[in-house]
Amino acid sequence: MEAKLLDEAVRLAIDSVKHGGGPFGALVVRDGEVLATGTNEVTKSLDPTAHAEVVAIRRACQAIGDFRLTGCTLICSCEPCPLCLSAALWARIDRVVYAADRHDAAAAGFDDSALYELFSQPREEWKLSVRQVRTGFEAGPFVEWENNPDKVDY
Ligand SMILES: [Zn+2]
To answer: What is the pLDDT of residue 80?
Structure first.
């Protein structure tokens, strides 16, 4: 079952390339049912976050009308990058299974492994400048959230 689903993710990825997308495919599966599929649409949709896994997660959430994918498995043609792993964590997905890995992706020019390494480096060494500036107003959203009786915890 798992191998068949992985093959399907790989098939999606191959089709994606044939149709102008990136070489990645993913499925969200629960209790043997495919809730949604996704392919990499970064260049097609001008969306740097449109990774196959993120696309599949978005569609699965829409399909079941929930922002939680508890009990679901994310099946990926390739090892998810940190963005997609984080998306899976936020979505409360139970399991992630992948076929190719970050080294296979790096050999094809997709250097996810560099991103993984970056997160273990001190931020001062990053090319991307990330810094905090407190203005005294920054706690406002959290106060508003705490005081909102209609908030939906996630
Ligand atoms: Zn990704």
So the answer is: 96
What's the 50 CA to ligand 1 centre distance in angstroms? 8
Looking at residue 45, what is its pLDDT?
95
Q: What is the pLDDT of residues 66-86, one digit of tens each?
A: 999 999 999 999 999 999 999
Of the candidates 48, 37, 38, 45, the residue with the CA atom closest to the CA atom of residue 20: 45
The Å distance, Cα 71 to ligand 1 centre, comes to 21
Active site residue 8: no
Q: Could you say which of 33, 53, 79, 125 is catalytic?
A: 53
**Which pTM does this prediction carry?**
0.94
| Pairing label, strands 73-78, 33-39 | unpaired
